[in-house]
Write the structure tokens for this entry.
Amino acid sequence: MPMLNLEYTYLTLPAAFYSYTKPLRFQSPNLLIENEALLAKLSIPPAYLSALISTNTNDKSLEVPHAFSQAYAGHQFGHFTMLGDGRALVIGEFVDDVERFDLQLKGSGPSAYARRGDGKATVKSMMREYLVSEAMDGLKIPTSRSIGVIATGETITRERQEPGAVLGRIMKSHLRVGTFEYARYFLTTEDLEALLLYAVDRLYPQCRAAENMAVQFISSVATNQFQLIAEWMRVGFIHGVMNTDNTAISGETFDYGPCAFMNQYHPNTVFSSIDTQGRYAFEQQGSIIQWNLVRLTEALLPLIDSDESRAIERAKALIQSFDQEWTERYNGVMAKKIGFPIADSISNSLVKELFTLMQLHAVDYTNTFAGLSHALPDAINPWNIPAFRAWKNSWNETAETLGYSMEERLQCMAEANPVVIPRNHIVESLLSETVQWDANPEKKQRFQEALNIWSNPYIFDAERIPWMNPPTQEEHLGHQTFCGT
């Protein structure tokens, strides 16, 4: 097998930021699914990951002596703790024509940061990440990408006995807000500065020329994060575990644990079994990302200014700008969902009125917006409700007054409003069928069909209507998601 040309720039950081880790090898790894198009784009050989974790190979090209796990800390549900890649390792970094990516294994065994965990993962949780991360890419939302899932042949213990698996994924960087918290509170100022310089050079090189590099770096991270979370809310996505260690400096979505997509609109929607207080509910995501960015700012205080009082004053001014920028990003995305290219007080008011109607009538989030552009079947079309027809009349009159033609609005909405999303009940059905793939190949074909449909979610045609159906009331009320760790 040809050797990958991997690099290891992360290992130029002080040794406290990582530990060398080798993936476990398994006697009977079985490739469940592989992202052939992505592998070809990245020039990664087919079945590379399977061979990498198999005991049945002596291929020297599969040795990864410099593979490493990252150290980091983080606020989990508001509580600070030491963490690290307990079940993940970076095989190395590779560069395509433009960008650098981490190539990571998840579920490949314990690292120095495993905290008594087994470092492994289940088929269901890894297939969930594969499915949803690829759907997010189809929705044109920045995300880690999944390369493949390999069943290990082991049975591992979670709430019950489950088959084990390893996920391969790529990402621009696995640096997190929690990495900076770790450097600030466990290492030296020199280590913190080394981390900042590395992050700037890798992800935000324009910050090198700034009057204050730390401030410009925080501002750049904030801009990317505000746009990312606004895009999540555009499609009704709820991450479910927005801890600071799950907030990527690169502005990518990753760690798809208890994630889900909203069906009936309600701002306080939560699916995660561990989010009992609604900390990471749909409507809270904008506030939480600001909270996380305050933690990043606190971590970088010594590099904002060597004088603590001046650093605090500079940080306060930066933090006070967060809410306005978030609001502008959010309003801009939501204006496009009703076909208005620019957000203003008029579009903000129309969106707010529509959300009030949606909550009052408990209608489906995705189908409501899709129904503004497409003739949906009556069973899933809320626009037959009198109050919605009245809103639509007002919307039309307002748009015409502002000079927004219907053609312009339809084009705008076609890019903002998906027709299909990974419906939770469909996702759960697909995941429950993965254990049947060997005996029933049609089950795997259905999984692939879902991936194909969700890779082009903005196209409307009659064949996609079954994928647009919301869950039954029983399915909706009974749905919970779990971390899978």
Summary: The mean pLDDT is 94. Residues 225 and 251 are 5 Å apart (CA to CA).
